[in-house]
Amino acid sequence: MARAYSIEEQLTWDELPAELPPEQLEAEAGTAPDEAVMPPPAATPQPAAEPGEPVFNSAQYGATTPPWSAAHAYTNLHPPKNPTTATVVGNFNCTEAGFENQTHHIVLDFGAMPFPVLEGQSIGIIAPGTDANGKTHFARQYSIASPRNGERPGYNNISLTVKRVREDHQGKPVHGVCSNYVCDLKVGDKVQVVGPFGASFLMPNHPKSHIVMICTGTGSAPMRAMTEWRRRLRKSGKFEGGKLMLFFGARTQQELPYFGPLQTLPKDFIDINFAFSRTPGQPKRYVQDVMRERKADLAAMLKDGQSHFYVCGLKSMEEGVMLALRDVAVEAGLDWDSVGASLKREGRMHLETY
Ligand SMILES: Cc1cc2nc3c(=O)[nH]c(=O)nc-3n(C[C@H](O)[C@H](O)[C@H](O)COP(=O)(O)OP(=O)(O)OC[C@H]3O[C@@H](n4cnc5c(N)ncnc54)[C@H](O)[C@@H]3O)c2cc1C
Q: Residue 40: its pLDDT value, please?
């Protein structure tokens, strides 16, 4: 399903944004599940819809408004027609699999150019050169992985978590234009950036607000940003409580971005749950399997009006995750229709899958 622009985003437009190219719409539709992090259909049987019963539509639960206590997000300060330039100040390994692996942690510095961002927002990067039709490449979106005050606090820089696309959603070998360009960048290189984008996938800022983060692969970028912001608040004595719960899936531990740094976070700060789908000799586990194992704690979160849910990663994870949440709610005696509707209405359920 293609994303819809939120009302907030639309209110910031002076002119209509460029239409999404067919390739991106196709990528966002993502029909074929990626075996890498998603179960084959038979692995996690889902209740089939009875004849006449509506098919489960996970996207309907995604909020288009931010949590009430989110900070104001600036959007489209640098629109596609007028990109700004950032300088690469870092290109690091962020998996145990090594630098040559597919996922990189990239740091971009904006120098004196104002580029205010919030956790959960994304930017667009325009790869140099032209496409097969001789047109400038369209901007690819990347979630910001750093908190609002910079990858390095107090600096005008942001980080990204970028995975090289080497095969398409059907497993056919391809050379992803922008992801490979970004992963090959060297310190000192200049990059064309547009954005920031996104005015609803934002974190709550009020005391005792809980955050449940559910992600696969590079979907961890916004979760890293939110976690790091709360970690910095806690370090400076300004953290006012609220739980952090993370469900994070990848094929193997070695391929999971930021596995090492996650180990150093205190257990009383964040409740981390990993799911690995291809650990040799181990049964396949996907994020929704682990969510079901943690149903008592998730049910408590669903009952609490201070809880905010964020889902980010492959499009194909969305349905399994939402079905798991629904089942957890129903098993706990909650009315899922009203819980799901409140989460959406109150800006407490955010879905960003691609
Ligand atoms: C809101 C949003 C946030 C995003 N955040 C991130 C992020 O934080 N990190 C990140 O790495 N990516 C992220 N993406 C995906 C990113 O925008 C690009 O789509 C991705 O990097 C592929 O671009 P490309 O130019 O390399 O591939 P293209 O040259 O555009 O595509 C090459 C081929 O690969 C297929 N393809 C495209 N994307 C994928 C994919 N992800 N997996 C498998 N096949 C694909 C295409 O259908 C096409 O056939 C995000 C997308 C959205 C919409």
A: 37
Residue with the smallest CA separation from ligand 1 atom 32 is 176
Choose one of 142, 191, 201, 220 to mutate for the ligand 1 pocket test, by most ligand atoms within 8 angstroms of C-beta.
Answer: 142
pLDDT at 289 over 60: yes
Distance CA 200, CA 65 (A): 5
Q: pLDDT digits over 29-44, tens only?
A: 322 223 333 333 333 3
Tokens of residue 243, six digits? 């739980």
90-120 pLDDT tens trace: 999 899 887 667 899 999 999 999 999 999 9
Distance (Å) from CA 212 to ligand 1 centroid = 24
Taking the centre of ligand 1 as the mean of its atom positions, its distance from the CA of residue 179, in whole angstroms, is 7
Q: Whose Cα sits closest to atom 10 in ligand 1? A: 162
- Domains of the chain from N-terminus onward: 58-70+200-353 (3.40.50.80), 84-197 (2.40.30.10)
